[in-house]
């Protein structure tokens, strides 16, 4: 008789006594067990235990259909591990927590609302990440259970189906995820939603100033972040977990991607990328899109194929390059912290003073936004960046700053339009980092830097792409009649922007 929850492979339910068969070594053992009818949120479910009259050993519980079916699904499931932005098995605190409770059902819920809002590259990358996670899980068990629908409907149903004692997740701090988790927690009723760990080294909300206020400025935040420190990577071991399965919904077809090159998805690829990047003289190369030697880990961090703690554990802060890289990771954490404290800043101005600047609207807006998005502004570094975004679902950081500044300060298009376009196309698109970097560039974010920091697209190109390697890579028509003349004059637009800013300040 198993003394803990066991994997019961067959049930035949008859009145109050069931016969159970469970695998043992190479063979199987049968026993008689008691069955008890229970109500869970108005639905009938049976609990099974054995042996009768000799102490209680829980074997299984679930809906009558499930137990009667005799399928593997009748397996005892003590908890659900609901994957979201943590598509990996290593360094995974929620996996550790779930595994400690007994058998684990690994689930991903394809939320149609998020799916529909994603561009094709993001959709494709998500599907590939899920397939990679499924393949990794299959080395240890039945694989990833996919369900489609609203999480607040799907998870309570699944919890009933497998009689889960808890649903384990990595906490989500973004506004949509946090609100969704509240809805799911309510819908689960007496089955707890257990949040363990976060996608960050230090969970958003944990750090505050001496006066108990949230940090508003990066530098003191990053200092407090380093002083606070972070845990060592979690020792989650998928081989040590008793994984169980359940019926799986079909994933959608992968959208066709024409001329788009995405990085390989999954945890193995993320760890390999990190290994390859380590030792790069980051300070010397990080601003050079032509060299293309940044880590390109943003996409893996976004989907949780790797945890920042895994990276931090490998970094030696006495080394200048590694210290700079750590500062970049701190930017990611800072933006998550700000969004957590000011969730409205996902859509709205962090500093509302700049709301009053004149921006183009109507047809002019459509034309300018269209030319920018297609890479047809006549400014090579801007156009190359926008083509890279379409071609790779990614763009170099220096170029992100240049194209964002150009849209807002040369084309006078409100930052929110650009941020939306980025979120649709970036495979690393992350609400906190995206919206707050856009606000940083637009001058309405957390940064104390004034609005009159305006990037000159010509001198930036000369400085950071000195041999035009980057622009030629993305603009084959450069230097031919097919390449457009500049859409606006940078010097004129810069002057207009500064004038509008002065005017706005004068009004206050
Ligand atoms: C307008 C704009 C929009 C952006 N949108 C996003 C976004 O949606 N998602 C995203 O992950 N990053 C965003 N960034 C930040 C930055 O451009 C990318 O993180 C970086 O280019 C990713 O490439 P990498 O992994 O090679 O970076 P590396 O230079 O190798 O940096 C290592 C890691 O540090 C973090 N990091 C670096 N710079 C920043 C930064 N400024 N803000 C936040 N984190 C940073 C990232 O996680 C990155 O993977 C945006 C920047 C701008 C200017």
UniProtKB/TrEMBL annotation:
InterPro entries in alphabetical order: Crypto/Photolyase_FAD-like_sf, Crypto/Photolyase_N_sf, Cryptochr/Photolyase_FAD-bd, Cryptochrome/DNA_photolyase_1, DNA_photolyase_1_CS_C, DNA_photolyase_N, Rossmann-like_a/b/a_fold
Species in which this protein is naturally found: Nocardioides caeni
Name assigned to this protein: Deoxyribodipyrimidine photo-lyase
PANTHER family named among the record's database cross-references: CRYPTOCHROME (PTHR11455), CRYPTOCHROME CIRCADIAN CLOCK 5 ISOFORM X1 (PTHR11455:SF9)
Keyword Lyase attached: yes
Keyword line: Chromophore, FAD, Flavoprotein, Lyase
Pfam families in the record: DNA_photolyase (PF00875), FAD_binding_7 (PF03441)
The protein's required cofactors: FAD
GO BP annotation list: nucleobase-containing compound metabolic process; response to light stimulus; response to stress
Domain of life: Bacteria
Domain Photolyase/cryptochrome alpha/beta: 77-204
Record carries keyword Nuclease: no
Note describing how the cofactor binds: Binds 1 FAD per subunit.
Family in the record: Belongs to the DNA photolyase family.
MF-aspect GO terms: deoxyribodipyrimidine photo-lyase activity; DNA binding; FAD binding
Residues involved in FAD binding: 282, 294-298, 325, 428-430
SUPFAM superfamilies registered for this protein in UniProt: Cryptochrome/photolyase FAD-binding domain, Cryptochrome/photolyase, N-terminal domain
């Amino acid at each position: 008789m198993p003394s803990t929850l066991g994997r019961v492979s067959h049930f035949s339910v008859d009145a109050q006594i069931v016969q159970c068969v469970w695998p043992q070594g190479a063979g199987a053992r049968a026993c008689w067990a008691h069955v008890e009818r229970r109500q869970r949120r108005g639905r009938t479910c049976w609990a099974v235990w054995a042996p009768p009259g000799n102490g209680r050993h829980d074997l299984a519980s679930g809906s009558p259909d499930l137990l009667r079916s005799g399928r593997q699904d009748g397996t005892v499931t003590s908890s659900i591990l609901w994957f979201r932005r943590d598509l990996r098995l290593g360094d995974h605190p929620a996996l550790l927590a779930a595994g400690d409770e007994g058998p684990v059902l690994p689930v991903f819920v394809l939320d149609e609302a998020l799916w529909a809002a994603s561009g094709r590259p993001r959709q494709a990358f998500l599907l590939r990440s899920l397939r990679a996670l499924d393949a990794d899980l299959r080395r240890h068990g039945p694989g990833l259970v996919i369900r489609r629908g609203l999480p607040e409907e799907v998870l309570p149903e699944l919890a009933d189906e497998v009689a889960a004692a808890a649903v384990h997740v990595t906490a989500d701090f973004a506004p949509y995820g946090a609100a969704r988790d509240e809805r799911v927690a309510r819908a689960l009723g007496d089955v707890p939603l257990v949040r363990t760990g976060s996608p960050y080294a230090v969970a958003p909300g944990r750090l505050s100033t001496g006066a108990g206020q949230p940090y508003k400025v990066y530098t003191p935040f990053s200092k407090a972040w380093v002083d606070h420190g972070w845990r060592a990577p979690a020792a989650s071991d998928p081989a040590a977990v008793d994984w169980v399965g359940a019926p799986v919904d079909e994933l959608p077809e992968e959208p066709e991607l024409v001329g788009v090159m995405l990085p390989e998805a999954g945890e193995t690829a993320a760890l390999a990328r990190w290994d390859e990047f380590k030792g790069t003289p980051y300070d010397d190369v990080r601003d050079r899109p032509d060299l293309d030697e940044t880590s390109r880990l943003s996409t893996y961090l976004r989907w949780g194929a790797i945890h920042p703690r895994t990276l931090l554990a490998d970094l030696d802060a006495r080394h200048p390059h590694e210290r700079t890289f750590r500062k970049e990771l701190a930017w990611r954490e800072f933006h998550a912290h700000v969004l957590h404290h000011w969730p409205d800043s996902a859509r709205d101005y962090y500093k509302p003073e700049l709301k009053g600047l004149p921006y183009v609207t109507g047809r002019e807006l459509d034309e300018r936004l269209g030319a920018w998005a297609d890479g047809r502004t006549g400014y090579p570094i801007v156009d190359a960046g926008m083509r890279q975004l379409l071609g790779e679902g990614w763009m170099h950081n220096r170029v992100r700053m240049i194209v964002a500044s150009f849209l807002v300060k040369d084309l006078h298009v409100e930052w929110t339009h650009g941020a939306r376009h980025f979120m649709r196309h970036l495979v690393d698109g992350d609400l906190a980092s995206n919206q707050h970097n856009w606000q940083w560039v637009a001058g309405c974010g957390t940064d104390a830097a004034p609005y009159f920091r305006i990037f000159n697209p010509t001198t930036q190109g000369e400085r950071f792409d000195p041999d035009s390697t980057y622009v030629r890579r993305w603009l084959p028509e450069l230097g031919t009649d097919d390449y457009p003349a500049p859409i606006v004059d940078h010097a004129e637009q810069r002057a207009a922007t500064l004038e509008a800013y002065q005017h706005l300040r004068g009004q206050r």
